[in-house]
Design brief:
Length: about 220
């Protein structure tokens, strides 16, 4: 069985700043993200948000089956971070830094350019367990703060990091890429995002990609 590269059983608050455990401080980025998420969701009224819509949105049918990859996205994030946390610390730093950049950039855009989507169906064409999940999603997540899509940004960051993971087999990387792509399109099929939200995530990822993987390319720190 593969052994973790760090023995986290030795972790104490007193040694959090040591080289062995200091990378864990990057997880604080999630605290900042969730605080900003709650604030933007509750303090920016929908009336002050600009609707995001394009003609392609009207051509994409509502398909509740896509709620499965949409929700499995959370497993993809947690599983990827946990794997790198245990077995490749530098890749953990890369991925978590990538996510922090997309989170902060996305939140800055939500504040400076409040957005919303009005794509959710008033009545579902079918009534089943999957549409029940979508009802739950709609009740938990408002239709504001949508452009760019964090589902897309995080998925592309995870795929990019895994493609650079030398210990991963080619077929596993292919699965990750295909799953990430499915998540990216799922946001449109469950009517949680406009196609424009997907497109807007690309330059945000480009910024994170440059900062994490290309800014210091060749220094041997981003393996």
């Amino acid at each position: 069985m593969k052994q973790p590269v760090v023995d986290y059983r030795k972790l104490r608050l007193s040694n959090l700043n040591t080289p062995e455990f200091s990378h864990l401080k990057l997880l604080a980025g999630w605290v900042v993200y969730f605080v900003l998420y709650v604030l933007t969701e509750n303090l920016i009224p929908a009336e002050s948000c600009t609707p995001v819509h394009c003609a392609l949105d009207d051509w994409i049918p509502f398909q509740e089956i896509f709620i499965i990859p949409y929700f499995c996205w959370y497993i993809l994030i947690a599983g990827s971070l946990l794997y790198f946390l245990l077995y490749h610390i530098q890749q953990f730093k890369n991925l978590q830094t990538y996510l922090i950049i997309t989170q902060l950039t996305g939140m800055a855009i939500y504040i400076l350019f409040p957005s919303r989507q009005d794509l959710r169906p008033e009545v579902f064409p079918r009534d089943n367990a999957l549409t029940d999940l979508i009802r739950l999603l709609y009740s938990l997540d408002t239709n504001t703060g949508v452009c760019p899509s964090m589902h897309v940004a995080f998925s592309l960051g995870i795929a990019s990091t895994w493609l650079r993971e030398k210990s991963a087999a080619w077929w596993f990387k292919l699965i990750i890429v295909l799953f990430a792509a499915t998540v990216c399109v799922s946001v449109a099929f469950v009517k949680q995002h406009s196609v424009l939200d997907i497109a807007a995530a690309l330059p945000v990822c480009g910024l994170a990609e440059w900062f994490v993987f290309w800014r210091k390319k060749g220094d041997g720190k981003h393996g």
